[in-house]
Amino acid sequence: MKKKEISLPRLNRLQPTLESTVLKLLEEAGELAQAVGKFRGLNGECVSMSSDEVLQLITRELLDVAQTTVSMMFVLEEEYGIDLSAAIDQHIEKLIAKGYLERNG
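-> structure tokens emitted (105 positions)
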């Protein structure tokens, strides 16, 4: 199966909680949605950025979402003892069961 793997750091100058991290995740997801809206002209504003500039903005916002998601993973592991390796395996099995992914695809 084709994968996109990223390795993002544990932010060592923050003390995230489950609640603060989910709020940050929602904020970053909103910023990503806003950037995509600009790219598609869905926000009613005249787009003053080039397509390349908007795509760079989308990429930056997507990485902010990814970083915040990784921060939440650290919170789940460190504060709640969640085994993320097992959770990822279960997630992949769910994707296969739903028909989104072929086991050897």
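Helices lie at 18-40, 51-80, 84-97.
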